[in-house]
Amino acid sequence: MKAIELNKNEYNYFEWLGISYCKNKQYKEAIENLLKSIESKSDNFSTWFWLGASYYESFQYKQASESLLKSLELNPSKEAKDDIEYLLREIGNSYFQIGEYKNSINLCSKAIELNNNNYLNWQLLGSIFFETKQFQNGVKAFLRAMILNENEEYKKFIEQILKNIGFDINNPENLSGLGYYYFEIGKYEEAIKYLLKAVESNPNDSKSWQWLGISYNKNGEFEKSIEALIKANELNSEDVGNWYWLGISYNKSKQYEKAIESFNKTIELEPKNDNHYYWLGNTYYKICDYEEAIKYLSKAIEINQNSSINYKWLGMAYYTIEKYKEASENLLKSSLLLDSDFETWRFLGNSYLLLKDYYNAFHSFEKGIDFNKGIEINSNNDYILKESGIDINDSSAIVVINDSSILNNYGVVLANLNRIEEAKKYFEKALEINPNNEKAKDNLNNLNSYLDIENLHIQK
Fold it and tell me: TPR repeats located where (predicted)?
């Protein structure tokens, strides 16, 4: 404390004094100093966080929750968010204990927004719902808690809580819902296990077949997905979800004509959903019918101007038929909506390069190469995103290119900007990745021997 008192002229004097009081469990003094800090600087998430923590320890729950929520508005660090999640749950539990259920639900829901994979958040929410006789919501919350915590003793604990209100997890009527909850958190194999039991118990439930098909799709088992979704369609051919996921499974298994039939049916049933037009356009793109692809992707954009993937695939279709101006316009719009997609930057850079717009090509390739640092090459020379949880069957996760082409083309741009030595380095890097890249090899030889920039090779 003495060290802090010697720095009274420091900007954050009151904040650090308040934090020290809080850590020393002198909460009244902590609150006084943290409030003084906020008077001079009200946009520091740390000050609001410690103020909330001090109020919490002083049993002033209203002020605590308000301070913590204010801290969240100021974009706190990951560590602070974890602490805020904990405190919001604890304050929610305190409100629960004194019967203020509305406040309790609100704070618990906020904790779930911060981390929906913490079983304790869902357990508390389930308890509140049960106490307020909202049993259906309570069952959902407790099931989510059980799925997130795979400890066998905990599972038995939750099963007993649910049995007390007459909900038996092993009852065939509940298997489909349990499978769906596993699906929601991405545990597709567990979802499949319960959904298989559900359709065995009740083979006429179209929704169970649908979710089984979707789970197989997400698990990369497309033929099994198709079988389940065909069965769902037999039971209910007017459910657009059956046709939609059937179309996606056909698309992913390269049965494109059947995919087109399915997506045409989704459009018939739901003509104002841009996703249906996107997937139809995507399918036409994959069979090289680019005019039809452009037609349906343009329709998707007409319905929804805020989807990066619609613009991306439309731009790629224009690029493939060498309409580079239209390609660059749509790829630029895609990049403005989502700036972390490698394919978008590569195609955008290539479009600008082929338009001889070297300045914009340079900046597009810069972004693409920067993003490429988070990518590795697998045995098939596909680029796979390193980040965990990426579905490698999703087009946005696979970059279907010659692995060194962006470096070669970046070298061409640098040469045209008269940055010759840098251009050589990128041709060399392209060859490090792919020693058989003949165009990069010729380009490097060109700069070393002839300096004939006009005849550098571009890789489309």
Answer: 45-78, 85-118, 119-152, 172-205, 206-239, 240-273, 274-307, 342-375, 404-437
Task: Return the SS3 of 11.
Answer: coil
224-242 pLDDT tens trace: 999 999 999 999 999 999 9
Buried b (16+ CB within 10 A) or exposed e, 71-96: bbeeebeeebbebbbbbbbbbbbbbb
Q: Which of 157-166, 323-332, 421-430 has the lowest mean pLDDT?
A: 157-166
Mean pLDDT of all residues in the chain?
90
| Torsion sign (Cα): 380, 382, 385, 389 | negative
Domains, the chain, ordered by start: 170-271 (1.25.40.10), 280-383 (1.25.40.10), 402-459 (1.25.40)
Q: In what order do the strands lie in the sheet with 383-385?
A: 375-377, 383-385, 398-399
Quick: pLDDT tens for 169-215: 888 889 998 999 899 888 999 999 999 999 999 999 999 999 999 99
Task: Report the distance separating Cα 373 and Cα 345, nearest Å.
Answer: 13
* Cα 57 from Cα 55, distance rounded (Å): 5
The backbone torsions φ and ψ at residue 392, rounded to the nearest 5 degrees and listed phi first, read: -75, -10
Residue 284 CB neighbours (<10 A) = 24
What are the φ and ψ backbone dihedral angles of 397, each rounded to 5 degrees?
A: -95, -15
Give the total residue count for the chain: 460
Residue 456 DSSP code: P
CA distance 74 to 46: 9
Measured CA distances, 119 to 99, 178, 185 (Å): 22, 16, 12
pLDDT in tens, 206-220: 999 999 999 999 999
Closest CA to 251 of 270, 274, 272, 229: 229
Structure-token match 């090509």, residue found: 361
pTM more than 0.90: no
Report CA torsion sign: 335, 273, 279, 385: positive
**Cα dihedral 261, 264, 265, 266 sign:** positive
| Residue 384: pLDDT over 60 | no
Cβ partners under 8 Å of residue 60, min gap 6: none
**Residue in the structure block whose two tokens are 């452009």:** 294
User: What is the Cα–Cα distance from 92 to 105, expressed in whole angstroms?
Assistant: 7
**Strand partners of residue 399:** 383
Which is more confidently placed, 458 or 1? 458
Q: What residue type is assigned to position 213 of the chain?
A: G
- 57 token code pair: 């320890």
Contact 71, 52 (CB under 8 A): yes
Residue 144 and residue 185 in contact, taking contact as beta carbons nearer than 8 Å = yes
Upper half-sphere CA count for residue 124 (Cβ side, 13 Å): 27
Q: What whole-number distance in Å separates Cα of residue 71 and Cα of residue 319? A: 46
